[in-house]
Write a structure and sequence with these properties.
- This protein is of the alpha/beta class and 286 residues long.
- The protein folds into two domains: 28-114, Leucine Dehydrogenase, chain A, domain 1 (Rossmann fold, 3-Layer(aba) Sandwich); 140-264, NAD(P)-binding Rossmann-like Domain (Rossmann fold), CATH 3.40.50.720.
- It has ten helices and eleven strands.
- The strands form three sheets. A six-stranded parallel sheet has the order 1-11-8-7-5-6.
- It is globular.
- GO terms for molecular function: methenyltetrahydrofolate cyclohydrolase activity; methylenetetrahydrofolate dehydrogenase (NADP+) activity.
């Protein structure tokens, strides 16, 4: 068996073409979806990621801007900036690039963003609606993973999904989204004993550990679908995931590559949420 590669980059491109058409239609109604990203400091990785969001926005016709603040900016200064954006009718989506410096309470910032503009899907209101299966902004990486599974016709209902990792950004919400789709969900983490017993029973295995190539063929079930969320840089500068792609692809039925897998879908879902916000705030409906 050789696994079918879930080509996140190609799927993202297709979805962005569809979004561009929708944005064109919104502009004909006088609605220009706009995303504002706030970044503190000049960390090269964060700046590169933020610039990638701006480029992707432009590809779909979404207006965007980046607000750069010094790393030394106070929590109150950041809250004041968010308040201005919350009250700006031209801004539909607000995203604060994480992580934030230690002197700023991340949760305070997340909660300060209007739920109507929470395109990251991290506001407690958004999380609560996700838990209860109501319409809301869903976190971008988990939504991207769900979209990939659905686009490739991978059955979720009744299947055993195992999530390795319990972060608020990926692990917890992706498990909830799969539960909402009627999967049986198991979470594994650093305190889990005999993790292989769980991974070998998974029909769908989602790996978000941040450790290169730790999942190998002996850890998975024959014919399972493997989603690799990990991004690790090797000594030679190349990127690799948490899954040993070569060995696992010989046993799984589906697998995502790193790079060009989950990453492009994350940004694409951010664009989708921004369009959704523009429609909701403009009275067009979500």
């Amino acid at each position: 068996m050789t696994a079918q590669v879930i080509k996140g980059k190609e799927l993202a491109h297709k979805l962005r073409e569809e979004m561009a058409e929708e944005v064109t239609q919104l502009k004909e109604k006088g609605i220009i979806p706009h995303l504002t990203v706030i970044i503190l400091g000049d960390d090269p990785a964060s700046k590169s990621y933020v610039n990638g969001k701006k480029k992707a926005s432009a590809e779909t016709g979404i207006s965007s801007d980046i607000i750069e603040m010094p790393l030394s900016a106070s929590e109150q200064e950041l809250l004041d900036k968010i308040d201005i954006l919350n009250n700006d009718d031209h801004v539909h989506g607000i995203l604060v690039q994480l992580p934030l410096p230690e002197h700023i309470n991340e949760q305070h910032i997340i909660e300060a963003i209007s739920p109507d503009k929470d395109v990251d899907g991290f506001h407690p209101s958004s999380i609560g609606k996700m838990l209860t299966g109501n319409d809301t902004f869903l976190p971008c990486t988990p939504l991207g993973i769900l979209t990939m599974l659905q686009s490739y016709g991978i059955q979720i209902e009744g299947k055993h999904a195992v999530i390795i990792g319990r972060s608020n950004i990926v692990g917890k919400p992706v498990g909830q989204l799969l539960l909402n789709e009627h999967a049986t969900v198991t979470y594994c983490h650093s305190r889990t004993k005999d993790m292989t017993a769980f991974t070998k029973s998974a029909d769908i295995l989602i790996v978000a550990m941040g450790k290169p190539n730790v999942i190998r063929s002996e850890h998975i079930k024959e014919g399972s679908a493997i989603i690799d969320v990990g991004i690790n840089r090797k000594d030679d500068g190349k990127l690799t995931g948490d899954v040993d792609f070569q060995s696992v692809s010989e046993k799984a039925s589906y697998i995502t590559p790193v790079p060009k897998g989950v990453g492009p879908m994350t940004i694409t879902m951010l664009l989708q949420n921004t369009i959704k916000a523009a429609k909701g705030l403009s009275g067009v409906g979500r």
